[in-house]
Structures are given as C-alpha cells and as structure tokens.
Amino acid sequence: MNSISMSESGSENEIPRSPQGNSGNSNDDPLLSLFQGPSLAKLMTHPKTKEYFHQEDFVQYLNALNETKNTSLEFMSDPRFMECVGVLMGVDCSGPKNHTPQDQCQEDGNSDSHDEEYYNKQAAEEEKTLGNSAFGKKKWRVAMEHYDRAINLDPSEMTYINNKAACFFSIGEYQRCIELCDKALEIGKKNMADGKKIGRALSRKGHALEKLGRIDEAIDSLKLSLFEQNDDKVKFEVRDLERKKKKTVDDNYKNPGRAEENNLAANELFGEGDYEEAIKEYIECQKRLPNDINYLSNRAVCFIKLKQFYKALKDLDRILEIDHNHIQANIQKAFIHTVFKEYGKALECYEKVLQIDPDNQECKEGFKKVVRSLNFQIDCSDEDRMKRSLLDTSIKHILCDPQLIEFLEKVNLNKEQTTNPAILAAYAKLKEAGLLKATP
Fold first, then answer.
1. Burial, 161: exposed, middle or buried (Cβ in 10 Å; 0-12, 13-18, 19+)?
2. Domain limits of the chain?
3. pLDDT reading at 32 higher than 90
4. Mean of pLDDT values over 237-253
5. What is the pLDDT of residue 287?
C-alpha cells in the first residue's frame, strides 16, 4: 500500500491506495476500508474533515494504519476519527469535540432563554385574561395592574399597552390614554404587529382626542386607522366628527359685531350702485347672523336691481318663513310676480299686505297696476287649451260660474268696476292659463 505523504509545506497529501493483492484479505480491519478509495476522497474534500489531512499527526496515524492493517484503540479514541466515521455514515459522531466550554454554556443559555421567553408569553396572556375580566367588571385599576404585569412579562406585545390605554380612557384620563396609544403604536410598528392591532390603537387615540376637543387630530387619527382596518363604525365616526367640525366652524364664524361692519360696507356699496359687491357683503352678514331679516331683505333688493329675480324670490321666501307678515317682503314678491305676469300670485301678496296695513300706499299702487293688466275677456277659441285648463279645479269652478263670467264681461265693457280681490284673482287665474284676450 502506498503511504500518505505530505509536501514540505504540509498543505497537500497523497491519497493512499491498497495494493492489488490486499483488497480482499480477510485479515484486514474492515474500518480500514473507510480510509481508502472514494471514501478517502470524500473525507479529504468534506468541510468537516478536509482540514484533518493538513494535520501531521493525523496523517501519521493513517500511514501507521496502512502498515499494520489494524485500527488501534488509541486511534479510535481520537475524536477526529469518529468525525470521519460520522461523515461517511451520515451521522453526527463528533460528540462535544467541536465545542469549547464557552460555546456549550452559550448554547445552554440560548435554550434556557427560549424556554423563559415562551413561559413569559404564556404568563402574559394569562395576566391579560385576568385584566380583561376586571375591565368587564369596570374595575379599571385592578385591570391596569394585570396589564402592567403582562407588559413586564412581554414588552414586545402592543395589545397589553393598548388595553391599559383603554382603562385610562374609561376613567377620563384622556391625555394619559393618548400617550399610551402612541407607545403601543411605537412597539407595534417595531415588532410588525397585525394591522388590526394598529387600527385599534389609532381609533382609541382618536376617541381620546375627540374628548379633549381636538377634533382635527381626532379625524386624522381615525382616518389613519381605516388604512389599517376597514371598520364601518369608524367610518360613521369620521363622518359625524366632520359634521361636528363644520358646525363648530360655522358657530365660531357668527359674530354680530362683524356682521354690522359688513352691513355698513354693503349699504355704502349699495348707495354707489355697486350691487354685486354689496351682495358679497350681505352674504357675509347673513353667514354671521343667518336669521337676520334685514340682511336678507337688503340682499333681495340688490338681486331685484340686477334683475336676478329667482335669487331674490329665494331670499324673500326665507324672510316670510321667519315672519309671514313681513310687509316689504310681500310687496317685493308681488312686484316680481307682476314682472313674470303671474297676476294671481301678485294679487295674493298685495291682498295680504292690505289686510295688515290697509293704508299702505305702495301696496295700493301695485294693486292698481295689476288690475289694469287684467283688462281681458274669456277666449274659448282654442279647444285643446280649454281641455287642459279644465284639469285645474280652480279654473273649472270659474268657468262653470255663469254669474261670475257675466259680471267679468261687464267689468271689461266698463259697465261695472270692482276692486274685489276674489274677482281680480279669477281674472289673473284665467290669464295665466291663456284663456283671456284683450277687450277690443
């Protein structure tokens, strides 16, 4: 058998080979075959054993084995030999040889650490359960004691901190609740907590901020929680807070002193004929004092000056909702209906004013103007128009009253005169339906 030889540098070895006639010798030790042929080549290239072939004493052992054909007890007790056997058999036979006392202590310490961490987590969950039970019974301080113990046992779990924050919320210590929510969020993000846990902490923080009146911050926190978890309840809370915020802004905007300043500026612009700018000032007045009739009335006049009649009607209707006997609003509304040739509606407005103030000269003049516009007689030449008009019950009643029709004809022929509002209203109704024609 060729011996294993080392180069002068000790970095290279020759692979020993069995002599041709010895491979089947029954007197050879069977373990010697582990250090021959392909097995030896595997050992010389394996990461765990290849370094042994650079060690002079190990190579000398192998050469001695090849000479004696027997494995000595001394060689078998060498841990390197056992490592080689383990590599070839696919098992770990190295024992503790690769570990220093320090390494062994470190492994034992890691194992103990993992066990301790596991038991701490279990104990923390038990404390949380006890805390939840106390929380359900509204024993906030007792619950906090259990949550504190859970936090000490497992500082990486944000749930315990968030639960403690809930206790402070329940006893009204909202600022402390916010601080704990922030701490829980910090721990949760650091340990990549579940989105639902992050969302719960953010929503709880939002509720506490709302209690402190910090509405903008509360809305932001609740909206952030929706990025972590889709919660319909939180969506409704955000909507309600935004409405509350708008109401607060509107309430803060109301200011009688500032409203009067805007009113003085508007009156000055009105006097200069700058109605559009005056309207802007009146709008500010109306925002600061929404139910002040004077500002609405002044703005309506501006709209009338600009011939924006529908906008004026909207303001006048708002005034009459507040005060249905407002004389000037009724007169202005009657004027607009006259412009639209809605004579029946105009007469109703004038009649209402005359019932309140029979001597109102402006109302009397407007009333006479409408009466002069009603110098018409019945036109029944259009059968289709007549059929459509008869669908209106009030028109049907007028046309079915022969005495009324006869009287109206006498009025048109100047044989009779009347200021009766009911008769004039009948004229207006027929004209609006297109059933009247001018008297020749």
1. buried
2. 1-100, 135-252, 374-440
3. no
4. 81
5. 81
Contact 154, 196 (CB under 8 A): no
Domain 135-252, what architecture?
Alpha Horseshoe (1.25)
**96 pLDDT exceeds 60?**
no
How many of the other CB atoms lie within 10 Å of CB of 236?
10
pLDDT for residue 377 is more than 50: no
Q: Express each pLDDT in 348-375 by its tens digit.
A: 888 889 889 988 888 888 887 877 776 5
Cα separations (Å) of 61 from 89, 243, 280, 310, 420? 21, 91, 108, 115, 141
CA-closest candidate to residue 326, choices 296, 364, 304: 296
Q: Is the pLDDT of residue 398 over 50?
A: yes
Closest-CA residue to 313 (of 303, 328, 323): 303
Percent of residues, the chain, with pLDDT higher than 70: 70
CA–CA separation, 305 and 310 (whole Å): 12
pTM, rounded to two decimals:
0.42
> CB neighbours (10 Å) of residue 101?
8
In angstroms, rounded to a whole number, what is the distance separating the alpha carbons of residues 107 and 104? 5
Q: What are phi and psi of 377, to 5 degrees?
A: -125, 170
Give 224's Cβ-side CA count (13 Å radius): 17
The sign of the dihedral angle between the CA atoms of 191, 197, 203, 209 is: negative
**402: buried, middle or exposed (CB in 10 Å: 19+, 13-18, 0-12)?**
exposed
Query: Which residues lie below 8 Å from residue 402, measured CB to CB, with a gap of 6+?
Result: none
